[in-house]
Specification:
Layout (H helix, E strand, L loop, with lengths): L23 E9 L5 E12 L9 E9 L10 E4 L7 H6 L3 H7 L5 E4 L27 H21 L9 H15 L4 E7 H13 L3 E9 L9 H15 L3 H6 L3 H14 L2 E6 L5 E6 L1 H11 L7 H9 L4 H11 L8 H10 L3 H11 L38 E6 L7 H8 L5 E7 L6 H4 L2 H11 L8 E3 L11
Parallel strand pairs: 4-5, 4-6, 6-7, 7-10, 10-11, 11-12
Antiparallel strand pairs: 1-2, 2-3, 3-5, 8-9
């Protein structure tokens, strides 16, 4: 399926003479769906300043796909805001969420929007520097951070030298892009539909342009102060894995306590890193050194869908079997993870953290098994990117009269239901759909057909009939006897 195939190239300022901020271009397009559907719409570009605080800013073009409404009496356009930061709205429409975009056309035109610095929008802010390291050397948090900072500085300096104004890549600019798109489309109001960082952006847009927003759907909520995750949430997640694991009596016999098993493995690695010989993709045998930090990091990477194999993996490590984590670490050492883009760095660093939350993270770091690894390498790389900061006012929760539907998964460690409960207090009219067993990302939208039903009810202005969904129990990998 192809929704859009476009490459954007930033051109020098003098070639923009005939352009001005706010210009919009729409080209009619028939999009192909995954099952051969033909969907009428348009490919669009919106011209905006790269940095509105710079009167001499160059202009950039933001790209979006518009799917025409199927309603005879449509409401305001619905703009989809991808997560990340760094995700592409157009890519989301091209993927597993395509049916949601099609269904949402019942409400109004649906816009799959590539935020500045993502997909085909604006400057290419990708960090091409490759994150690699020698797998046979013990890698601590400090050494890994040193490497990240060096690569980040190289990316930062290269992007600046290419003419990109990185100061324009923050959530407030992103929010103003959305309102400029609304105006260019000739819409009095728009509705926002976001996930993860997209909810962070939607909240910022409400703060700056509430009068122009009809409704918001926020899934996997990252509130104004939630950019830095709490270590206590990762500890609760280990406890929740333990609770669900114990529903399998065979595994429960072998692992009386999953958190205690994790502690046993990490304590062993802290005392003495483990060397394991693994085979790479070429068939070459390589020695890999696993440290406590390495296993902590790989555990947080696995959150969000791979929890079912964690008890078996940790049980294997407790018995001396480090082959699989060794292969995974070798893959990371060869650059499998990649570097976050310049857009990602700038957005997260700009959003920042309050002193109170930072103090809480540091306190919890000392008392939880995975410490603050879920946040790594933020915020410790932000000085490399100039220490940008939108300030304390940006990080305050908002009060809003715009109706909001919050969607959370009880198995989502990155944006747990507690985030939504904190943010929703500021919304006069709100609903909270809680999906028991859902992890981050796709399951917040696709794990049950009732999710879409609830979203459409809310967007039609109706009272949602379902605010609680229970998914099938997680299936854990069996442990070989």
């Amino acid at each position: 399926m192809m929704l859009l195939a476009a490459v954007f190239v930033v051109v020098p300022l003098n070639l923009h003479a005939q352009k001005k901020a706010g210009d919009i271009k729409l080209e009619p397009r028939v999009f192909d769906g995954p099952k051969g559907e033909k969907v009428e719409g348009a490919r669009g570009t919106l011209t905006v300043p790269e940095n509105r605080n710079n009167p001499n800013s160059r202009l950039i073009d933001l790209t979006f796909a518009k799917f025409n409404t199927t309603s005879k009496n449509p409401g305001p356009p619905v703009i989809y805001l991808a997560g990340g930061p760094g995700g592409s709205g157009i890519a989301a429409a091209r993927g597993t969420r395509f049916p949601l975009f099609m269904a949402m056309r019942e409400i109004g035109d649906v816009i799959a929007f590539d935020q500045r610095g993502t997909g085909a929008s604006g400057a290419n802010t990708n960090c091409t520097e490759k994150f690699t390291f020698p797998p046979d050397q013990p890698l601590t948090r400090e050494k890994t951070l040193e490497l990240y900072r060096a690569l980040g500085k190289a990316c930062h300096d290269r992007l600046l030298a290419s003419g990109i104004d990185l100061l324009g890549y923050n959530t407030n600019e992103n929010a103003d892009d959305i309102d400029d798109l609304r105006k260019a489309l000739g819409a009095q109001k728009v509705s926002l539909w976001g996930i993860s960082y997209g909810t962070h952006l939607a909240i910022a847009t409400l703060r700056r342009h509430e009068a122009n927003i009809e409704r918001v759907i926020l899934a996997g909520i990252e509130g104004p102060e939630h950019t830095l995750k709490l270590p206590s949430n990762t500890q609760k997640h280990l406890d929740e894995i333990d609770r669900r694991m114990k529903l399998d009596p065979e595994i429960a016999k072998l692992i009386p306590s999953f958190p205690m098993l994790v502690k046993e493995v990490l304590d062993r690695l802290e005392k003495q890193p483990v060397t394991v010989q693994v085979t790479d993709q070429t068939g070459k045998k390589t020695n890999v050194v696993l440290t406590k930090f390495a296993v902590q990091l790989m555990t947080t990477f696995a959150f969000g869908g791979d929890e079912g194999r964690m008890p078996a993996l940790y049980y294997g490590m407790s018995k001396g079997d480090f082959k699989f984590p060794g292969q995974r670490w070798l893959s990371l050492a060869n650059g499998a993870q990649g570097m976050p883009s310049g857009m990602t760095h700038m957005m997260d660093c700009y959003s920042g953290v309050t002193k109170a939350r930072y103090a809480r993270v540091k306190a919890e770091d000392r008392t939880t098994l995975l410490a603050d690894v879920i946040d790594f390498p933020f915020p410790d790389v932000c000085d490399v990117w100039g220490n940008p900061d939108l300030g304390e006012a940006f990080r305050k929760n908002i009060k809003s009269n715009v109706p909001a539907l919050f969607i959370s998964g009880t198995f989502d460690v990155r944006t747990p239901p507690s985030n939504a409960e904190e943010v929703r207090r500021g919304f006069k009219t709100n609903y909270h759909l809680i999906i028991d067993g859902a992890v981050h990302s796709d399951p917040l939208f696709l794990s049950s057909p009732k999710i879409l039903e609830t979203m459409l009810e809310f967007m039609r202005g109706e009272q949602p009939q379902t605010l609680s969904i229970s998914l099938d129990p997680i299936k854990f990998q069996q442990i070989p006897k």
